[in-house]
TrEMBL record:
Protein name: Isoaspartyl peptidase/L-asparaginase
Family annotation (Gene3D superfamilies): (Glycosyl)asparaginase (3.60.20.30)
InterPro entries, per database record: ASRGL1_meta, Ntn_hydrolases_N, Peptidase_T2
UniProt site positions, description: Cleavage: D159, T160
Protein keywords: Autocatalytic cleavage, Hydrolase, Protease
Record family assignment: Belongs to the Ntn-hydrolase family.
BP terms from Gene Ontology: L-asparagine catabolic process via L-aspartate; proteolysis
Amino acids binding substrate: R188, V189, G190, D191, T210, G211, H212, G213
Species whose genome carries this gene: Mola mola (Ocean sunfish)
Amino acid sequence: VHGGAWAIPDECAKACVDGVKVAAQEGFSVLTRGGSALDAVEAAVRNLEDNTVFNARGATLNADGEVELDAIIMDGRTLASGAVSSVKNIANPVSLARAVMEKTDHMILTSRGANLFAESVGVASIPTEALVSAYERTEWEKHKNYATGVKEDFNSAHDTVGAVTVDCAGNVACATSTGGIRNKMAGRVGDSPVICGGYADNCSGAVSCTGHGESILKVTLARLIISHVEQKTVAEASQLSLQYMAERVHGAGGAILVSPSGRWAATFSTDRMAWAAVDREGLWYGLDPNERH
């Protein structure tokens, strides 16, 4: 799992690392009980969405001071996926994304349509304030007068959350969820609900991306990483793709990747990325470059 690639401040660092460790263990416990890869990534991301440390439940605010959420989930066995974008007042957008995948003929529902669908399948809405942390409200007040359209600081708060896994049947899955970038225009949609922000295919692996959404979209980062997997290690595939994004569009971010054989990597080009992984050898986690505990 990852909790976002950005310049995580020291005062948030421990909480971010603790959060991803708990979420990784939550997803792994689903697998040990016989759950599917889809079940595991949904459980892990729901755990992260429920943690206000991250930019899902502790969502960033757009230029109008509103919360608009994006999420995707994808099944590597069938290539089925579901996503929601610019949805409001939903506690766990990743579960709504799974409902889109399993209960509609579509792949993405957005804005009012996504909320109407949520109502139709019995997903309860919650007050906007329940999605905004005190930290985010303070930061938004600080930055809300910045001119719209100024060049992005790729190390600012882009703490999208995500998970990837492979289950005992060899099926892979990915899920990604975000509140977007602070002070974004109303209606802005980044990479998270689009297949280039997350991708899963049993033939190659599963990826969840984080970072500057517009940059990730331009290079279709998740598919770019997957395209390197056959010739490179999982770490090399991620590193090469992030390097290309930096050189081609001057973007920064991170990614987690798992192969059908269980090889995994967590890589990033920002100052920090909170990540954690569970495999047969135990629990692994990190925050700073070249850090792995």
